[in-house]
Specification:
- It is an enzyme of class 2 (transferase).
- Its cofactor is Mg(2+).
- Its EC number is 2.1.1.386.
- Belongs to the methyltransferase superfamily. HEN1 family.
- The structure is a single chain.
- This protein is α/β, with parallel strands linked by helices.
- It has 3 domains: 186 residues, Hen1, N-terminal domain (c-terminal autoproteolytic domain of nucleoporin nup98, 2-Layer Sandwich); 53 residues, no CATH class; 199 residues, Vaccinia Virus protein VP39 (Rossmann fold), CATH 3.40.50.
- It contains 15 helices and 14 strands.
- Strands 2-3-4-1-5-7-6 form a 7-stranded antiparallel beta sheet. The protein has a 7-stranded mixed beta sheet with strand order 10-9-8-11-12-14-13, with helices on both faces.
- A hairpin with a 4-residue loop joins strand 3 and strand 4.
- It is elongated, with a radius of gyration of 26 Å.
- The N and C termini lie far apart (65 Å).
Length: 458
């Protein structure tokens, strides 16, 4: 992987002071995925270019998401700029990213003419322009053609950026946006990535027109992390950002698909007369908020396998400032839906809103046994995407969300629902949620399971 930084600032060799890398040397750094080099192909008073070259070692690259044994050797990672290059940039140019230079402190805050080139970068011309142009860059992103025998363009571009910015601004733009363009990261993304995003996005991300897209892709479409990052970016009192349900691709109408889903679930809970309700896989607590506003619900329990998601839900609900009478109605429990949990037994209703599609299909029988067999609420409400509807989303290929393990047709969902109902003594009714298309149905499908009175244990 290669990235070059060029300036015509006079004297141009001041670039070496800003990067804290002498132009007369080749600098070598060990990084977790290989070896990074910094060298200067040209270094004169008129023009200076620093090159960051990352030599990826396939045997050190742990391709955790590859589906076959040789995946770590047969992929584009050693060649196309990605989070691998961003991580190397952060290590090699640490002082420049922070805006520190003991030799040229006055130059750190001074915009200088810069040209950045990344000769192989996964992405499109349109997206590269959307991301970099609002930051003051002039963008040239030329699609790289496939071999003549194949014809057409590949999914990679040769990117060149030019503008007058501080070097710190330029490096922070690259650190955040290279993995955003690639839409992937080579390492596990944890909550500390929020701090990295906010630190590197200081001064520019909050005002970027595509900040939601940037946050989602940088945080690999993790709902809880993205929601927290956007809240922190806008301030604690900011309007709640879209939950992961919205991240799928909303139906183009005034009310979001997530809002329509919540309304449908609330209406169904009212229909069955529930007062003690489980929100299983509650995430950041969007449904919990609506349930607590309705006094008919005397006990509301939110569960999630992620402790971090529960922390976010507690903060969103302002649990520490909640009146005692209202707080007594709410419980937040860490629990995995594929394991039996005695605390979940005996409730009027359980909701699994956009949950099942996040499980690997072989794990569904465990969920069915723990929810329908062991916890056995009087009613269970399940919502999930209708994959047939996906053709109505322009530009969508594959599933609606990167963490979805499957999406079912209406027939597949109906077959699953009827099989679960028969196995566990429930009756089931199916309905659509959202504006229906004549050919493909509604964007979301909902199943209401009701336990037969003779099957409900005393």
């Amino acid at each position: 992987m290669l990235l070059t930084l060029t300036t015509t600032h006079r004297p141009a060799t001041d670039l070496g002071y800003l990067l804290v890398k002498h132009p007369d040397r080749v600098h070598r750094f060990d990084v977790p995925t290989g070896t990074a080099y910094v060298l200067y192909p040209e270094a004169t008073d008129e023009r200076c270019t620093a090159a960051l070259l990352l030599d990826v070692d396939p045997q050190r690259l742990r391709a955790q998401h590859d589906a076959f044994a040789l995946g770590q050797f047969v992929n584009d990672r050693p060649y196309a700029a990605s989070s691998l290059l961003a991580s190397a940039l952060a290590k090699v140019f640490r002082s420049a990213l922070r805006g520190a230079s003991k030799d040229r402190p006055e130059l750190v805050a001074t915009p200088i003419p810069l040209t950045v080139r990344v000769p192989v970068l996964r992405g499109t011309t349109e997206l590269a322009t959307r991301l970099f142009e609002p930051l003051g860059w002039s963008v040239t992103a030329i699609p790289i053609p496939l071999e003549p025998a194949l014809g057409g363009d590949s999914r990679y571009v040769d990117l060149e950026l030019s503008g007058e910015l501080t070097l710190t601004e330029a490096l922070n733009h690259l650190y955040v946006l290279l993995p955003v363009l690639d839409d992937a990261k080579h390492y596990w993304v944890a909550p500390d990535e929020i701090d990295k995003l906010l630190r590197s996005g200081a001064g520019w991300l909050a005002g970027h027109p595509d900040k939601v897209l940037i946050a989602r892709r940088y945080l690999v479409h993790k709902r809880a992390l993205t929601t927290t990052a956007l809240q922190l970016l806008e301030g604690e009192e900011a309007e709640e950002p879209p939950a992961e349900e919205d991240a799928e691709l909303p139906v183009p109408r005034r009310q979001s698909l997530a809002g329509q889903r919540r309304d449908a679930v609330l209406a169904t809970l009212a229909e069955v007369g529930a007062s003690r309700v489980l929100d299983l896989g509650c995430g950041g607590g969007a449904l919990l908020t609506a349930l607590l506003k309705d006094r008919r619900y005397t006990e509301v329990v939110g569960t999630d396998v992620s402790a971090r998601a529960l922390e976010i839900a507690a903060r969103k609900l302002r649990l520490d400032r909640m009146p005692e009478r209202q707080r007594d109605r709410l419980k937040l429990w860490q629990s995995a839906l594929t394991y039996r949990d005695d605390r979940l037994r005996g409730y009027d209703a359980a909701v699994l809103m956009e949950v099942i599609e996040h499980l690997d299909p072989p794990r569904l029988p465990a969920l069915e046994a723990s929810v329908f067999g062991h916890a056995r609420p009087t009613a269970v409400i399940v919502t999930t995407p209708n994959v047939e509807y996906n053709v109505n989303y322009p530009g969508l290929t594959g599933l609606r969300h990167s963490d979805h393990r499957f999406e079912w047709t209406r027939a597949e969902f109906a077959a699953w629902a009827h099989a679960v109902a028969a196995a566990h003594g429930y009756s089931v009714s199916l309905r659509g949620v959202g504006e229906a298309d004549e050919a493909t149905g509604s964007p979301t499908q909902l199943a209401l399971f009701t336990a037969s009175p003779t099957e409900v244990p005393a």
